[in-house]
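In response to reviewer comment 3 from the previous cycle, which asked for concrete evidence that the modeling workflow produces usable outputs, we include below a single protein chain processed end to end. The sequence was submitted unchanged, and the resulting C-alpha cells are shown without manual editing.
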Amino acid sequence: MISHIIENHTCIITISNPPANTWTPESLLALKNLVPELEANKNIYAAIITGQGEKFFSAGADLKRFNEGKEAARHFITVFGEAFEAWSNARFVTIAAINGYAMGGGMEAVLACDTRIAETHAVMALPEPKVGLLPGGCGTQNLPWLVGEGWAKRILLTGEQLNAETALRIGLVQEVVAKGESLNAAKGLAERVSGLSPKSVAYCKSLIHNARNGVSASDGIKLERERFMDLFEFADQAEGVNAFLEKRKPNWKNT
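The workflow returned the following C-alpha cells.
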C-alpha cells in the first residue's frame, strides 16, 4: 500500500490506502524494506514521501488492526518504530510533501523526514491519547527535538491540531505552498540536493543527528573533523574541488 517511482536522483513514495491513506503493518514493513534498497542504489540522493489524493497525507494507523489482539498490536507498533527509525536514519535526504491531513502515524512519518513542505490546507496532530494510545512511531522523541518541549507537550497533552501556518511558525515545517503544489516544491528541493555531494550530505546528516542521539559536543566536534578527512577517501571529493576550480558543475558518482 505504498508505491514508488524513481525520477533522476529522487525516489517518490506515495502512501496509497484509500480513503485516508492509513498505515498497516504491511505498508510499514514495505517502507522499512525499501530503505536499504534505496541506500544500495548509488544514484538515489533524495526521497520524497506524500499521500495519494488531495485530502490525506496519512490519517495514521488503521485502528481496526489494534483489535486483533495484544500480540498483533505489539507487532504493529514494533514495525511502526522500526520503519520510521530506518527512514529517519537513511543516508539520503528525506522530504515530506504534506498534501493534507497528517494525523497520528501520518504525522510521525512527517517527523521522521529531514525537511517538510506543507500545503495550505494541511492539518497535523498526534491524537493517539484520544483513543487511549500514544505515538509509537518515534513521535514522542522526534517532536520535541523539532519544536521544543513546550509545543511538544501542548500538541501531545492537549490534542491540539496544527494548521500549516502554525506548523511553519513553530518550525515543524519549513515551507508552506498552495494546495496541490507540495510535490512539485519537494521535487525542486530534491533537485537542489542532487547538486551536492551525496557522500558529504550523508555525513552531514549523521553528524546533525549526533546531538539528538546523545553524543557530547566535544565528541561531535572530533567526529566532524574525522568525517571531513574521511571524504578524501572518495572520488567525489576531488571531483567537487576540481569542478569548482574549473568553473563547471560537478559530476557526482557517489563513490
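The mean pLDDT is 95. We consider this sufficient to address the reviewer's concern, and the full set will be provided in the supplementary archive.
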